[in-house]
């Protein structure tokens, strides 16, 4: 029986802050550090227009560098808090806390095991990140619950009222020994969900995450789902994303109604050093009063932003240049983790 005293809030609910980790020469960004810092500076400038930003840095030298970069772009540093901790990389959607909220305003930092996306990369420092943030008092009185089961924040979507959406392709890679029924039970218990919806189709070439849901389909307010579509019949993604769209059309709300679907346009293939990069418009970030939307320098950037705005009415739409991020196979949502209002 799932304990409903806690729940996983939807991303569009009020937030305290956004959490990021700054790239440095000891991370996988080393070869293109200057390029990716332009995205991080643009992200910091956008977030701090609406709310606070917590930046994890490796040491004081990096903190001073980041302060100088942000000051040069006119970022309000009174809205920025720096925390010094070691980390392997900067994908805080996956190594950061999945925060559950109780009806009395208490919070639980749910700390799943982070394995570097199934052992693809070293992740010991990233796996210890949440505990480090807790030790530094970042989250006030929130409780900290470690769960010895691999799950990344990018692998789940919540509607805030008990439904979790995820992909079979990702979780069967993490837990090949477990059945869908077993994983559904674990997700329901650990995330205090009333139901878990699974997608069997959908992927992006070049994606290290094994089809994280936040690159494919996102819940939006009012029983909406925004998803990455492909309208190019010659593209190898066409059939798979078409089938995913059909799966989404077959899903029902708890009241038995279909979701309102918002298909996103398909960017032209971006090839770098002979490999295709995973450019998804579904990988956007919601903040207080706005949605930050990835832009890739493609002709359909503006159309993607318009559709996302339509699905999130009443919010300002801010485009953030994300082409440097997809060199490492992620985008805007992947490098951030929102923190619910009241926890910071």
From TrEMBL:
Keywords: Hydrolase
Organism from which the protein derives: Dyella japonica A8
PANTHER family associated with the record: AGMATINE DEIMINASE-RELATED
Protein name: Agmatine deiminase
GO MF annotations, alphabetized: agmatine deiminase activity; protein-arginine deiminase activity
GO BP annotations listed: putrescine biosynthetic process
């Amino acid at each position: 029986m799932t304990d409903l005293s806690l729940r996983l809030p939807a991303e569009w609910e009020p937030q305290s802050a956004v959490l990021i980790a700054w790239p440095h020469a000891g991370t996988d960004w080393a070869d293109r550090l200057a390029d990716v810092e332009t995205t991080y500076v643009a992200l910091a400038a956008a977030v701090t227009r609406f709310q606070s930003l917590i930046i994890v840095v490796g040491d004081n030298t990096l903190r001073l560098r980041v302060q100088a970069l942000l000051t040069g772009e006119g970022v309000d540093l009174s809205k920025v808090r720096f925390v010094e901790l070691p980390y392997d990389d900067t994908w805080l959607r996956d190594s950061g806390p999945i925060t559950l909220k109780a009806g009395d305003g208490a919070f639980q930092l749910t700390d799943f095991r982070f394995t570097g996306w199934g052992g693809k990369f070293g992740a010991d420092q990233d796996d210890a990140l949440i505990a480090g943030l807790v030790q530094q008092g970042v989250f006030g009185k929130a409780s900290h619950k470690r769960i010895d089961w691999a799950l990344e924040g990018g692998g789940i979507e919540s509607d805030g009222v008990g439904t979790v959406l995820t992909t079979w392709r990702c979780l069967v890679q993490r837990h090949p020994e477990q059945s869908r029924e077993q994983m559904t039970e674990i997700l329901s218990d650990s995330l205090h969900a009333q139901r878990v919806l699974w997608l069997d189709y959908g992927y992006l070439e070049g994606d290290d995450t094994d089809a994280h849901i936040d690159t494919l389909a996102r819940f939006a307010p009012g029983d909406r789902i925004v998803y990455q579509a492909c309208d190019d019949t010659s593209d190898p993604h066409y059939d798979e994303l078409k089938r995913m769209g059909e799966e989404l059309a077959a899903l029902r709300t708890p009241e038995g109604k279909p979701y309102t679907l918002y298909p996103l346009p398909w960017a032209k293939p971006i090839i770098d050093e002979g490999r295709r990069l995973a450019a998804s418009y579904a990988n956007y970030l919601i903040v207080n009063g706005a949605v930050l939307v990835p832009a890739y320098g493609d002709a359909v950037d503006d159309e993607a932003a318009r559709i996302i705005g339509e699905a999130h009415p009443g919010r300002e739409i801010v485009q953030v240049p994300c082409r440097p991020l997809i060199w490492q196979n992620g985008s805007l949502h992947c490098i951030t983790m929102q923190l619910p209002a009241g926890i910071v």
